[in-house]
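Q: Here's a chain of 228 amino acids. Please give me its 3D structure as tokens.
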Amino acid sequence: MLGIIGPNGSGKSTLLKIAAGVLAPLSGKILLGKDNIKSQPRRKIAGQLGYLPQNTSSMFDYRVEEVVALGRYPYLSGMGFLQKEDWQIVERCLEQTEIKIYRDRPISQLSGGERQRVWLASILAQEPQVLLLDEPTTGLDLHHQVAFFGLLEELAQDGMAIGVVTHDLNLAGQYCRELMLLRSGEKIISGLVGEVIQDDILAEVYQESLYVGRHPVNGKPIVLPVKK
């Protein structure tokens, strides 16, 4: 799991949109596997890559279960009906994201954080090999932030490639294996978490005095502001 961090306006969301094929690069190309993403049908891409942007909405007030079931679209054939296996995958994704209790509720009746988990469940139902998420824990309480990143960590351990944009340096430090630090559209540094989360590097990029220490339980880096 790669965490993409950096100040506002550093290009994190733009980078993710380009990687997902939503925006075209000004030069070069984006490869999904060995193929140029530009030449692949969106339905084929959806079977390999899941993308969760910052702001997601629905034109229709579907029930939660229906929204998650939409993630099976890339695999439908014939009459377009979901099969038993599809519904089993939908059920698993509802459980993974802790939204089974909302399955029959219209999505309009959920909080922003609850909706975010619904959209994640829908993307997981695609069974992608690559997952790209743009600030996915915005609006989530502490429990669901931890649960969200814990689930991403499990998916990464099972072999899924994950890129996640986040402003929370502590969540990034606890759950990501590697980090990429951006500023003004340029990569400043990328590498293992401990190589990127260093007080001098972060202070220069964020223009703020910061303290970088170690978590007392697991020894991973934590970042705190230094009160002036």
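Q: Can you summarize the key feature?
A: The domain at 1-48+130-228 is CATH 3.40.50.300 (Rossmann fold).
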